[in-house]
Design brief:
Elements (H helix, E strand, L loop, with lengths): L5 E3 L1 E5 L7 H21 L5 E5 L1 H10 L1 H12 L3 E6 L11 H19 L5 E3 L9 H7 L4 E4 L2 H4 L12 E5 L2 E7 L2 H6 L5 H11 L10 E4 L9 H6 L14 H11 L3 E3 L2 H7 L14 H6 L3 H16 L4 H4 L10 H4 L1 H23 L6 H21 L16 H25 L7 E6 L8 E6 L2 E6 L5 E7 L4 E2 L34 E5 L4 H5 L15 E8 L2 E13 L6 E12 L3 E10 L6 H10 E5 L1 E3 L8 E4 L17 E4 L2 E6 L4 E9 L5 E13 L2 E16 L3 E10 L1
Parallel strand pairs: 1-10, 2-3, 2-9, 3-4, 4-5, 5-6, 6-8
Antiparallel strand pairs: 7-8, 11-12, 12-13, 13-14, 14-15, 16-21, 17-18, 18-19, 19-20, 20-29, 21-28, 22-28, 23-25, 24-27, 25-26, 26-29, 27-28
Helix pairs in contact: 1-3, 16-17, 16-18, 17-18
């Protein structure tokens, strides 16, 4: 009788977001990357498949030559396989075809150049799968992908069915699919190694063609929690079964000692065994991701339902067909993610237009210079496609402000390169300003983009006539890289006091108007817990004019609405105009509020004017070291006053504020003009309460300046914004 056996391909995924802090990567290297590769190197008979994000591989090639040398030796002795994917870890579903191909070729070429290995498999960022993937993966010569076993559930394939590889196709182009084994993923390294062996023994059979694919983030083997001690420190591994021996060498020894466990790479398995059958998978990611993407209220209910079905023996079969949300919905759930994504699409379209303009150039030397700049601009766009900050789940994701800043930096870098190229083709384009009406955020409505060689000012008339992006191009800096304090499902946790969690009702855009009672406090405004008397805050303004006057771009908007009487349910009509002027070094916003005077309803208007104030939001974001932020005002003395630190909430009387980001040597100045002499200014930080793999965190997302104005029948005020 044939002895039972099972195949065990192991994959380790090494990843860091683009522009992550060097000290973070160094810490990961010390705790996980180096000891993991050292252990693999020692166990020559254990076959391993590796994946590296391109930007991390660049870092390792530059800074860790000994680490790279070990990988080269293992490649020569056929111990390892290295798989490819997108160079900067994009979600393939949300980037264009050309970019998919370019990113995959870039990573495959680097692996071939450095390690002499042909890339046959593709890593899918966050295991996001869509049915058209076989086509473009086939176009770059890739033969297989790794997906979550969750992808197979709704097709009726059981846990036992995921112990094989499958084949799928799109447009007749085929691709082998390997399902990840959920049980092994949760056992390693959290449980003693014998439990993984017991599971493998249970799943082994006489045919010998089964495989249990173990996949893990390399960071999980040393960086998460106490895993460095568990995996590598003698005496600190699992006592039960492993007698304190480190998990990684213990696990490799278990494989070596149990001959019925066949260690092999994914390509070796694919060459040895055919696919079990043809399969077609729906759009999917891993189960947790499909939960995280759901709208907050739905997510709360979904989590309860999923848990109850999984734990109920009578209903366990139903669980197999329970599906969560669709990954792309993150672009709806977080408008800030959508803004980054749509800016990426917009900038790459500008670059394509620039490529087409190259046809007009006849000078061969100039063409060579421009082609180099175009290649550099494309790479900036590819860097902006790194997936980490486009979503949020257990990890910070979109809440990590420095990752959003990275995306904007690379996209504005690309825009500056496009400007340089256009000025080479047409020197008259060196200095410019223009207005583009476009459905930028793809909501079927028109936004207005004011672009110059100095600024990008993106205006959304349909969201309160607000500005949602403000780029200072000389420093590739988006000052509106703020994040709204969105309500999250985990905010219901008993670990958080209710007063700790501040959530916003409206997106944190610049020039949003709020009509509030005169008695509203700084704390209520900060918490966004007040009654709104107007109907202007997130409603549509009509664009009455958008034009250029010399080197000034002007957008004029208006809305006819109403403001509620503080004492009754009656409302008084009011017309608001909001004009935005963008000049070479200055942006001005002029607001006019004109009340209709209705005969015999003068008391209503008088009560509104007496008891209601208007506030205007001026949120902005600095990316530098928060301890080095500085600010000043002509109206107050800040010397030796700890309460006036930049992130401390404060209310003061004045008409001027200037803030300075020392790290980036960038200043942002606000001048307020009004007939009213005493303008009450509220200043408070935008802090999001976020649950991450390290527990609850308060993450700085910017600062908000909110001047308050007392109403009159014809109120006019203006803001002048200067960036340098």
């Amino acid at each position: 009788m044939t002895e039972k056996s099972i195949n065990l391909p192991i994959v380790f995924h090494f990843h860091q977001p683009v522009d992550n802090f060097d000290f973070v990567i160094e810490d990961c290297y010390k705790k996980s990357y180096a000891p993991l590769i050292d252990n693999i190197f020692k166990f020559e008979d254990i076959k391993i498949t590796l994946h590296f994000s391109g930007n991390l591989l660049e870092w390792l090639l530059k800074k860790k030559p000994d680490f790279i040398e070990k990988i080269k030796i293992m490649a020569k002795r056929s111990q390892i396989e290295i798989i490819g994917g997108g160079y900067y870890e994009p979600i393939f579903a949300i980037i264009p075809y050309r970019d998919k191909i370019a990113q995959m070729k870039k990573l495959s070429d680097l692996i071939k150049k450095e390690f002499g290995l042909d890339v046959k498999g593709a890593w899918l960022s966050e295991r996001v799968w869509e049915p058209n993937y076989p086509s473009f993966l086939n176009d770059v010569g890739l033969k297989y992908v790794i997906v979550d076993d969750n992808h197979f559930r709704s097709t009726g394939i059981t846990e036992e069915g995921t112990l094989y590889s499958y084949i799928t196709e799109d447009e007749g182009k085929t691709l082998r699919i390997f399902p990840i084994n959920e049980e092994l993923r949760y056992l390693t390294p959290w449980k003693p190694t014998y439990l993984s062996v017991d599971y493998l023994r249970k799943m082994a059979d006489n045919e010998g063609n089964r495989m249990a694919l173990l996949i893990s983030d390399a960071e999980k083997m040393g960086v998460w929690g106490t895993t460095h001690q568990i995996c590598y420190i003698e005496g600190q591994g699992h006592q039960d079964g492993d007698n304190g021996k480190p998990f990684i060498p213990s696990f490799f020894e278990q494989i070596r000692n149990n001959k019925w466990i066949n260690s092999l790479t994914l390509s070796e398995y694919m060459e040895k065994y055919p696919a079990k059958s043809l399969v077609y998978l729906p759009t999917a990611s891993y189960d947790k991701m499909e939960e995280w993407v759901l709208p907050t209220d739905i997510r709360k209910n979904f989590k309860k339902i999923r848990k109850s079905l999984r734990e109920d023996e009578e209903k366990k079969e139903i669980y197999q067909f329970l599906r969560g949300g669709f990954w792309r919905y993150f672009l709806v759930k977080y408008p800030e993610s959508n803004n980054m994504h749509k800016k990426m699409i917009y900038v790459r379209n500008k670059l394509i237009n620039t490529e087409e303009n190259l046809l007009k150039v006849e000078n061969e030397q100039l063409i060579s210079v421009i082609l180099k700049k175009i290649a550099e601009a494309w790479d900036e766009i590819y860097k902006s496609q790194c997936n980490d900050c486009y979503w949020h789940g257990l990890f910070g994701g979109v809440y990590l402000q420095f990752l959003r800043f990275s995306v904007y930096t690379h996209l504005i870098n690309a825009e500056r390169m496009i400007d340089d190229i256009n000025s080479l083709i047409n020197p008259k384009m060196k200095s410019y300003i223009y207005i583009t009406p476009i459905d930028f955020i793809k909501d079927s409505k028109t936004q207005y983009l004011i672009e110059s060689d100095v600024f990008n000012v993106y205006v959304n008339p349909n969201d309160g006539g607000t500005i949602f992006e403000l780029d200072y191009k000389p420093k590739s800096y988006n000052l509106l890289n703020t994040l709204t304090r969105w309500p999250e499902a985990y905010h219901d946790s008993k670990k958080l006091e209710e007063k700790e969690v501040l959530a916003d009702r409206f997106k944190r855009n610049l020039s949003r108007l709020r009509f509030i009672h005169e008695e509203v406090t700084l704390e209520e405004l900060w918490a966004d817990q007040y009654y709104e008397f107007g109907d202007f805050i997130d409603e549509s303004f009509k664009v009455t004019s958008s034009e250029k006057e010399g080197k000034i771009a002007i957008i004029e908007m208006e809305r006819i609405g109403s403001i509620k009487d503080p004492d009754t349910d009656e409302r008084n009509p009011v017309r608001i105009t909001k004009d935005i002027y963008v000049e070479e070094r200055e942006i001005e916003i002029k607001v006019r509020i004109i009340f209709d005077e209705i005969h015999e309803k003068e008391k209503i208007l008088n009560r509104i004017i007496k008891k209601v104030n208007v506030a205007i939001d001026i949120p902005f974001f600095f990316n530098g070291d928060t301890t080095k932020f500085q600010w000043e005002s002509r109206q107050i003395d800040l010397k030796n006053d700890k309460n006036t630190e930049f992130l401390e909430p404060l209310q003061f009387i004045g008409s001027h504020l200037k803030a300075y980001d020392k790290t980036y040597d960038l200043s942002f100045e606000i001048e307020i003009s009004s007939k009213e002499e005493s303008i009450k200014i509220n200043k408070f930080p935008i802090i999001a309460y976020v649950y991450t793999d390290e527990g609850y965190k308060e993450i700085y997302q910017g600062i908000n300046i909110t001047p308050l104005f007392k109403l009159n029948k014809n109120l006019e005020f203006s803001l002048k914004l200067k960036i340098s």
